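Hi R.,

Here's the chain you asked about this morning:
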Amino acid sequence: MRDNQTWNISTDQGWQSFEAMRNNLVLAGKNPRAQFVGEKRSLDQNALSHTLYAQIAAQVDDQSVNDIRAECMLRIGVGLLRAADERFREFYDSGLKQLTYEQKLASMSYVPITSIMGKKVFSAYVDEVIRTYSQQGISLINPSEADNYA
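And here is the predicted structure, written out as tokens:
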């Protein structure tokens, strides 16, 4: 058996293949282990967040794309990630929570807030970025719809 094999166990055939491998390992005296891994975000989701940052920065005075990115990650991402990930919550509370707002904002260049979000949390993050900035009068266009407005 190779290490790090993957089976799609959502199908009967995939489950049977997984079960056969497990049974063979047990019969051979091995201790097989399974790990369930959440779905990774798509590149489209990543591109969407960066497009949103750019659209917001273009409509806000005196803030760069990186400023907007850091602001979104701190004001929106940290709360979502703290709620979803106990280890992150402990890290943030013990290492960053006591910092000033400006220090926290600067730390967003070094803390991979959105990179460690799973698909579900990242979707909530993007939705909240859109909601928050739309309420401030910022006009945001989904990149897939941008051609319709050109």
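One quick note: Residues 65-84 form the longest helix (20 residues).

Cheers,
M.
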